[in-house]
Structure formats: structure tokens, C-alpha cells
Amino acid sequence: MNKDTRIQKIQEIIDRDQNRTDLLNQEIMWEKKLESKKVFNIPLEYLIYNKYNGRILSRTKSLEKQNQIIDVESDNGRSIIEKLLWDSKEDRNKKTEASIKEFGQQKVGIITRDGVIIDGNRRAMLLNRVDRLGVFKAIVLPVTLEENPIEIERLETSYQMGEDEKLGYNPIEKYLKAKQIFDKLIPKISEKDAIKSIADWMGERESTVKEYLDVINKMDEYLQYLEYDGIYTQLDGREDQFLSLTKWLDNFYGENSKRAFDGYKDDDVDDLKTIAFDYLRFRNEYDGKEFRNLAEGNSDKHFFGDKKIWKSFSSKHYEIINSLPKEADVDFNSNNLTKHLNSRDKIFFENSKLGQENSAFLENLNDHKYNIGYNKAGDEPEKLIKRASQTFDAIKTNHKAFSQPEIQNLVEELGEKVFATLIKKSPLRILNYIISQLESIDFDKVPENEIEEIKLKAKEISKICYPIYK
């Protein structure tokens, strides 16, 4: 059914039932006035879904990025929207569907005069599942979507983003919705007035709307960084991390934050953003709370608060990145782009294991997380020394890997650090230790090929000890 036919059919119902006293009346805010409007029973077949409604906005935009045309007037387009609406909150949809079967439609919807559903897309989808020949109880606006897009946007947002409704939304949708409205308003009014309008429509504070717009900008940057522009489905499960990252960047840019290391530059903040994007990419492979180690809280609680730790961490990160194989190009013609991109991200993570059991990215994060802990316990030497001793005890020194030169070099380096501190604090302890070690050597079991060299070392020790004794 085309647009003109829908307008005609819907108008016929309005003309026929306008004076019926058994139909409900409901008040809505329309063009800044509270108006009482009659609720009509509109056959479902006269209606079309709004593919840009707030519940599935990220999904439809992602599909259209793949050059998929969603023609809501076609059977195929309708099926796509119905599946997206059903999948958006399947558990809640099942409960509502059961309620509709028992009690019918309980909440009135809103449509334009050409049958576009402004409020109630999910309800209409469920009614269609129950009976496609049924009716939809709705207020009919006196305009089409094209005739007054801003007022319809206001009305739709006020209804869809109310506190009760927002609970049923994918978290990413509110950011996209704010951006969509902002882009429509900004050519007509100032940025300040646009934010105020969005706040009024969404039932939020202006500061919250500003945050929404900041966060969606970071989300867009992230997608562009990965060459996933417009594929908003790749943001699922990452809202908390984007909120944190946005806060960090707003705080650090300008080079005057007390929560960053002394002398940091905006270039360092750029590195933080890039590295955060990489960790966001394989978000599902680790506890999301670990993300906070990058820059959350006061300077003593995160990597970016300590210059030595940050330089070590970021250098190692880029070293890992440079060791990874070149990634395949994104295939935007994939039959299932979400699956394709998830697979691409998974391969990126698997490659970061570099032939080992664990990802080098996560190893890097864990290694430097311990450094933060050591910094905090720096004035508690007993605790740290016990921890170091326990860690060394846990090493399987009989394992063949322990004999590898690079491992032995690390052991030697560790020993030198221990001896260096003892020499400074207590030379007597060093001498006692040397004597006990010399006494523990069983010279009867010394390999023959080492005897002559041992004699030379003994003379050298004697030579060193003589001046000490004197």
C-alpha cells in the first residue's frame, strides 16, 4: 500500500469515527499546546514502521552502512524491522506478547496521517505477530513525517525516551538519538538552544545531553579508527568504557590535569586514546573493570598517573602492535557484517598471543598493574619483600626453561639488585652471607675443568679481603 492510499484510508476512518463517543480521548503536547485527541482503531495493514525509531536506530544505521535498503513499505523491509524490534528485547517482548494475547493493546500509539508509527513500533510489531488483520489504537497526527520533522522528533523522543521506556532500550541508542536530534536542530538554532531542547525532550539535564554528545563523538572516532564507520552494532557492551574514556580525555587534554603524570603532553593523551581503542576492541576477552587501570581516578591509581609506568606500558603496547600481521580489509559486502567484524576483532586478539597461551596485551596490562600496586606499597618494604620471595619460590627452577640464558640473566639481574641494597644498608650481612655460601660448597665435588679457575678466584677473594681486614 503506497503513501497516498494510506493517507486516504486513514482519513476515511477519521471522517467516519470522528464523532463516536465510545472512543477514547487522550491528551498530548503538540506544537507547544496540550491537546485532546481522539484515539482511532487503525487497521495494522495501513501502517508502516519508523525505521529510525530510537529502539533500533543503531541497527538500521548499521545495515544501511552496508548499502542495505530498508524499504518499510515492502514485505522484506517490514520483516527486517520486525526482527530488529523483536531482537532488541526478546525477553520483554515475550511477556508483552503474552499480555496482548490475553488483554489486547493496553497503551495507545501515535501515527502520522500517512501511517508512519511515531510511538508504538514495538507494540505494533507484537500485534502483527498475534493478528496481522487486527487494529492499532492510535492518535493520528495532522501531518506526515516530512511536513513537520522537528515537532515529530520532539514528540517521538518525549514518548520513547521517558524514564519507563528507556529501561527497555539498548544503552547505545540514547547516544545516537541525541546526535540525530542535534544534527537536525543545529542548522536552525544555536548549539546551546539545541542542547536545551534535547534535554527537555529526553527528560534529562543539559549536562547529561552534553555527555551523550561527547560520548557519541568518541564512539564515532573509535569506529573510524577501526574503519567500521557507521557500524554501531560494534559498540555493544562497551558503554561503561566509553563513558570512562570520554571523562579521561576531557580531563587530560590541555596538559593541566593533576591526575596525569607531571609534564605530560597532549600527544601522550592521543596515545592514551589510541591504546584505549585497542583495548575496547577486544573488550569481551577480559573483565571490563581492568580497563580502569589505564587512567581512572587519582594519579596513584592508574598507568597514566606515573610517567615511568606509562612510558613502559605504552612502549610495550606499540611493540606488540608492530609485531602483529597486517589485517585483512573490512568486507562491507559480507552477508553478516556484524559476525564478520566480530571475527576480525577475535583474530586481532588471537594474533596478540604471539604463539603463547595468553595475549601479550593482557600480559602487558597485568604486568603494569602490579607496578601500580608496588608504588602504593612502596613505604611498606616488608610486604613487598615477602611478596617477591613468595613469587620466586613459586618458580619451577627445575624446568628446562629456567636454564635458558635470558632467564638466567634476569635471575642474575635480580640478585645484583638485592646485593646492591644490602651493600648500602649492611656490609656485614653481605660478608656473613658470602662466608655461609663459601662454607656450603663441597669442594670434593668440584668438576675437574673448574679446579684451576676456582683456585684463581680464591686468590682473588683473598686479595680483596686483606685490605678489609687490615
Mean pLDDT score: 88
| Integer count of domains | 3
Alpha carbon gap, first and last residue:
110 Å
Spatial shape: elongated
Oligomeric state: single chain
N-to-C series of helices and strands: HEEHHHEEHEHHHHHHHHHHHHHH
Overview of the molecule:
With 470 residues, the chain is an alpha+beta fold. 58% of the residues lie in helices and 6% in strands. The chain contains 19 helices and 5 strands. It has helices at 3-17, 57-65, 75-88, 90-103, 121-130, 149-160, 163-166, 171-185, 191-202, 206-225, 239-252, 266-281, 307-323, 337-351, 360-376, 381-393, 405-425, 427-439, 448-469; strands at 25-30, 33-43, 109-111, 117-119, 135-140. A 5-stranded mixed sheet has the order 1-2-5-3-4. The mean pLDDT is 88.
